[in-house]
Amino acid sequence: MNSSRTGLRRAALAVLSAALVATAAGTAQAHPGKVGPGKGHHHGKGHPKPAASLRDLADRRHVLIGTAVDTTALAEDGAYRAATAREFSSVTAENVMKWEVVEPERGRYDWSAADELVRFARAHGQQVRGHTLLWHNQLPAWLTEGVADGSIDAKELRKILREHITAEVKHFKGKIYQWDVVNEVFEEDGSLRDSIWLQQLGPSYIADAFRWAHRADPGAKLFMNDYNVEGVNAKSTAYYELAKKLRAQGVPVQGMGVQAHLDIQYGFPTDLAANLARFDRLGLRTAITEADVRMFTPSDPAKLARQASDYRGLLAACLATKGCTSFTVWGFTDKYSWVPGTFEGEGEANILDADFRHKPAYEALREELAKRH
Ligand code: XIL
């Protein structure tokens, strides 16, 4: 793990220097949130010192702080764009690297939206997490329909998967530091999900996916990724056992991604750090990949305090784990979030409110990152 930390440190330094350039280029003055304790105080020759952003603080902890990016908002909303640039050192495409977007018709690739995001990241000194190569959701209709009507048989499907993974990873070669290669492949009881991949190809599709991805970009770190794997439970244990087995076979599985879509109506997974630690001991990197903490709306101060405490707990567990090299939130403002559209009656799951004001959760992340350790 030492070498991974050293590698990250180097990457973090590169990010830091690029961030300074981005800040100098004017992203900081566009910061839409409140400025914090430094506001109004003049330092040195009369310039107010902006409060440190999440990424400034994360750089000092040698961890990447990321967000999922809604590329429509990025194109249309200046406040969203400024906050994305200012606060984060890593970005994940919320949707535009998914199969249905990048290959809407068989053999016709459309990388335009994803390329735009990669360009944005580069301009602001940010790293890019790749999400996701293989999933059971957001597949193109030509693929699901072809499997359903029998026009795509198992042999053909395996070839299609190989070509998809190879084309996508090659397209972004050298630009992605971590790929979610397989997403949500287990059920809650630890059995493999009954997806078209398992039905058609059998369990070996997982090892294949990692091998194909590694061949296409040996420099990217390859992850499994799922929800409800924060604590030690049947599902996370299935991942642990799978990782152990695949690594023993020489399959290039290098990381475990914990999505961390939490809800304040449930208890916080207090064994998260212990869970991350066991993957760490296997020699895997770990990452919090999609953190958000939802609640039934409207919020109140007690709910927001509980939300802040959950965000803090997620980040603290990551910071306590040597190989946990990135912490990503699934969107950062309540203005754009998948939660209200997915969980009835729930929302306000992010760290900034819909007007980009800092919520207690934002301050909690800042405090946690600023702690001396
Ligand atoms: C979600 C996006 O946020 C939505 O915009 C989209 O409609 C559906 O997918 N787990 C994942 C993510 O791995 O890709 C999902 O993202 C959220 C759950």
UniProtKB/TrEMBL annotation:
An example GO BP is: xylan catabolic process
Which keywords are on file for this protein?
Carbohydrate metabolism, Glycosidase, Hydrolase, Polysaccharide degradation, Signal, Xylan degradation
Question: What reaction gets catalysed by this protein?
Answer: Endohydrolysis of (1->4)-beta-D-xylosidic linkages in xylans
Quote the Gene3D superfamilies the UniProt record gives.
Answer: Glycosidases (3.20.20.80)
Q: Name one Pfam family in it.
A: Glyco_hydro_10
Q: Where is the composition biased (Basic residues)?
A: 39-48
Q: May I ask which residue range the UniProt record assigns to the signal sequence?
A: 1-30
The cross-references to SUPFAM superfamilies, in alphabetical order and at most eight, read:
(Trans)glycosidases (SSF51445)
The record's listing under SMART domains reads: Glyco_10
* Region named Disordered: 29-52
One GO MF term: endo-1,4-beta-xylanase activity
The source's superkingdom equals Bacteria
**What does the record give as EC number?**
3.2.1.8
Transmembrane segment boundaries? none
Show where the GH10 domain sits.
51-368
Give the enzyme class. hydrolase
PANTHER family named in the record: BETA-XYLANASE, GLYCOSYL HYDROLASE
The similarity annotation says: Belongs to the glycosyl hydrolase 10 (cellulase F) family.
Q: What is this protein called?
A: Beta-xylanase
